[in-house]
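#structure-requests
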Amino acid sequence: MMLAHLRTMARYNRWANERLYAACREAGDGEVIRPRRAFFGSIHATLNHLIVGDTLWLDRLEGRPLCGWALDHRPCADMDALEEARRALDLRIVRVLDGMADADIEGDLVYRTAIDPGREMRTPRHLCWLHMFNHQTHHRGQIHDMLSQTDVPPPPLDLIYYVRENA
């Protein structure tokens, strides 16, 4: 049951990101890079933070070496690079979860954080996945707010809209 839920969240995540990126593209580069009173300072920086966060969590969950990026690193210089990275990550998330069995999300993930790499953490794997999706939702909400300060209306991103469209 939990794996089915995570697979739904992976697809919802991709759907929400596609809608959000379309709105950002419509707003234009000037609005995306414009400094704002936001935690990461701009839409561009927040989109980059999501790329970094998802990459770190996926690397951990797949047992890969970590990318080594700081949480405020900006691996993507422009919207084209952001969109390419986002599409690749969203596809990777879906494929990883589609390739898993229930047993693959059981047990704990032992890892070190980007903020305090000297400290070992232990968290149930399924909660790590849920955290990654929740983290996405949190920062998409911030971007949604920043878009509302432009001439482009932010798109509805609620899970229920995804469910209704994909039932």
